[in-house]
Amino acid sequence: MSKTVNQNGTVKSFVIDTNVFIHKPDAISSFRDNEVIIPLAVLEELDNLKRFSDEKGRNARHAIRFLDAYASRGGSLHQGVKMDNGSLLKVVRAGSTDLPVDLKHDKADNRIIQTALDLQAAGRQVFFVSKDINARVKAEALGLQAVDYEKQKVDINSMYQGWREIQVKRDTFEKFKIDKKLDWRDALKSNEFALLKTADENEVLLGRYMSQSGEMRLIPNRRFSVSGIKPLNIEQKMAFELLLDDSIPLITLLGQAGTGKTLIALAAGMVKVTDEAKYNRLLVSRPVIPMGKDIGYLPGDKDEKLSHWMQPIFDNLDYILGINKKKDEEKGVDWFIKNNLIEIEALTYIRGRSLPDQFLIVDEAQNLSPHEIKTIVSRAGRNTKVILTGDPYQIDSPYLDSNSNGLSYLVEAFKGQPLYGHVTLSHTERSDLAELAAQLL
Fold it and tell me: In what residue span(s) does the PIN domain sit (predicted)?
């Protein structure tokens, strides 16, 4: 978004849709040395959203305060106020261009598009910026140049995987097997895994790169279980390696349905909280992104409402405890919740909290924006481990996709940091049917 001026020096007019502010309240700072247009209908929508207590409401209030800070500097938003990034900020009303009869004028989205059409009719070079795919399609159909807000987008096809295969010479391979470590100077990220193999053999050694020492360390090829859960493939083994390492406070696990990302995160959390007492509590949450988008539409108190959205978590916990039932038949999920060892919470209630000594798992994190991800990770107090799991291809939020969601953004932003580890899991282990469905559907 920084390169916004044509070679001939023509100023561009960026018309900003409401959802861009909801995605990132200070998004207009990304458009430099040009003209940033806020349709009056956008202010109306932000005003309607500001009363809500959810993330949309908070971002709407933040955006309004951000705009007010420029308005209070003097000058007129109608004529234009100079921004710190060199752009001219204006608020413009729609009116001079007639919309097609198919588009209702009383709909805010259409009035926002009409504002962009007015500017284009006046000879401006206009770009309509929106996170709403359908709004962009309508704008394009009406002859506008429509673009997504890409400041926080990544390329999902080339995203960091957390591991790679590396072919080495036979003597290097044997040395690694004996010494259990190698001096490694090639370009690897901190805590990245490597599958080392030779050209003439099928044997594979699993190593993990430690950036602080510049070493590749061998991961022992041994059978083990965590809360009764055994890794069923080498990717799950990598994930357990990170989950059980107390020196890594932030972990992301990406994978399609059935790869086991949530189950193994919960299994590791149970061990760390109940067996090792490394953390005081296992706190599990997930975004509430249903058709109604609010747990208030369900009957009952907060716990009864949450039970519907958190049922996949309860299913996994029941499975883990069922494996260990012979060990202690008295301790079900309710026992751990009553004794404050496990807490199931909606993300709505995590904001504003400080979370020390917690093993925090956020499931379905692909439905969060980069701003929401930042809010959650910044809640981590001392001795808290944060695990974010999700499938970037299974997005339920209307303004996010596999490239712009907060989980994908975090992976690319944090890769290489010594305090961070990541694994992309590709093998479905839920069942043969689940794997076939993932491949064919």
Answer: 12-137
pTM score of the predicted model? 0.82
Domain locations along the chain: 12-147, 226-440
Q: Residue 97's pLDDT is what?
A: 75
CATH class of the region 226-440: alpha beta
User: Alpha-carbon dihedral of residues 413, 414, 417, 419, nearest 10 degrees?
Assistant: 160
φ, ψ (nearest 5 deg) of residue 171: -65, -35
Radius of gyration (C-alpha) of the chain in whole angstroms: 25
Tokens for 103, please give them.
């588009």
The rounded distance, in Å, linking the Cα atoms of 91 and 88 is 10
- Per-residue model confidence as pLDDT tens digits over 4-49: 444 445 789 999 999 999 988 999 999 988 999 999 999 999 999 9
Q: Tell whether the model's pLDDT for residue 185 goes beyond 90.
A: no
CATH topology of domain 12-147: Rossmann fold (3.40.50)
For the chain, first and last CA: distance in Å?
A: 36
Rounded to 5°, the CA angle 300-305-310 comes to 155
Find where tokens 């429509």 sit: 146
DSSP H helix total and E strand total for the chain: 14, 17
- Do 12-147 and 226-440 come out as alike in CATH topology? yes
Query: How far apart, in whole angstroms, are the C-alpha atoms of residue 306 and residue 288?
Result: 9
How many CA atoms lie less than 13 Å away from 400 in the CB half-sphere?
29
Question: How many angstroms separate the Cα of 147 from the Cα of each of 60, 68, 79?
Answer: 21, 26, 25
